[in-house]
Amino acid sequence: METQTTTRSVRFEYPLDQVRAPVLYHLIVDFGLIPNVYRANIDVHTGGFLEMELTGDPAALERALQWVGQQGVRVADPVSP
């Protein structure tokens, strides 16, 4: 039986106090997602952003995005195409 996967483009906007949080690690290990980062700018003094595609189980993807928001990282649509 084939497992259903989906891919979604997202932008994570990091406030200064969350820049060092291992968010991508948790997306991979805890939610089984595959990130493909195509644009990023992170600075430990100002915060930053990541734009990426996330691929994985649709339910896990939704749970992961909710978890990211609960960590204080804003989830938005990407600016880049």
How would you describe this protein?
This protein has 81 residues and is an alpha+beta fold. It contains two helices and four strands, in the order βαββαβ. The protein has a four-stranded antiparallel sheet with strand order 2-3-1-4, with helices on one face. The longest helix is centred in the last third of the chain and has 13 residues. It starts with 5 loop residues before the first strand and ends in a 5-residue tail after the last strand.
Q: Which terms would index this structure?
A:
81 residues, alpha+beta, Alpha-Beta Plaits, 2 helices
Can you write the helix and strand succession as a string? EHEEHE
Radius of gyration computed on alpha carbons: 12 Å
| Sheet of most strands | 4 strands, antiparallel
Strand order of the largest sheet: 2-3-1-4
Shape: globular
CATH third-level topology: Alpha-Beta Plaits
